Amino acid sequence: MKKIVAVFVCLLFLASALGASAVVLAGKPDKCEPWPECRGGGGDPPPEGAVYFWQYGGEGKEMWTMKADGSEKTKLGIYPGIDGWEDFGALSRLEHGGHHWFLRFEVVGGSYPSGQWIRELFAVRDDGAVEVQLTDDPTLETFDLGRALDWGIDDNTVTWSAKRWGDDPIMPEEFGIFSAGISFDANGDVVGPSGEPTLIWDTGYHYYPPRDYYIPNVKRFDWSPDGTQIVVAKWQHDGWNYKMFIVDLATQTETDLGTSGYKVSWSPDGSKIAFIQSFDLRTINPDGTNEQILVEPIYRGRDRYVNNERIDWSPDSNHLTYSWIVWIRDRPPLDIDNFVYRVDVNSGDKTCMTDDLDDAFSHSWR
Question: Which of 60, 103, 128, 195 could cross-link 77 (Cys pair, CB 3.0–4.6 Å)?
């Protein structure tokens, strides 16, 4: 009987949302909107592993971890004075010295020929207690608009999108994805770089008028599980969008997946690639077949509920985490709330994992 009532309430909720011409939400919205049933969804049993995520707190940006069912939330560290979604990159795939490590670019002074501040790459321990500089190269400019940044297939390397400046003050010499090695101590902590950054794939470039400079063509990328290929979201001049390609690093060849998308993520078992397209969360096979929509945005009057942040796979490749961003336009000033959700890729069931927090986002599953 309770299930019947719950379904009836859900239908009434969705019908009112679709039929309303304008909706004003009073006060802070329910964390689980627009799916009231999401607290009990997301698959049965819950997947294994730990999910790391950011939370904005009173003292600064905070690193948290929780179990994959949303329980046992623990604050690991606080990073005062750090804001913005793009300050930190991916969490390390492997655990070192009892910790995971993040990647971030930090302004170190001076400027590139483009006029942008010089940024170098750092590794930061998940508790915020240790930060190690990995690059020291004023000729290598990171792409700071939707940064493409990740660990290598193991944690012995880092990879990111950048451009290399030479003698020409207008046009850089190289655009592409670069790789650099990392050294560890006996405890497994990062201690510094190992070798100089090298170009592993030439992405090409396009002109970006608002900044009046040239940038690499890649928005985001992710590695195949075997480390031989990467999936990339590559800028297309003719369509003014990002299309998805598989790049074979040995042959330096590209295979068009036949669809547009960005913020790509390759499943650990290699069978699926998740991506965002027009705020939809979708999956596709690596051969370009079986494209499916898992989560669609919902528009409610002037308010929006959209997927526009990091996506990540569970270790068993059966679930995805994503960020559900709520734009409340009738609660001035423009209010944005961020929630971390989990979706079962087989059933489509969804779970709000951070309904007890105020502003959680940018997650990584380990």
Answer: 128
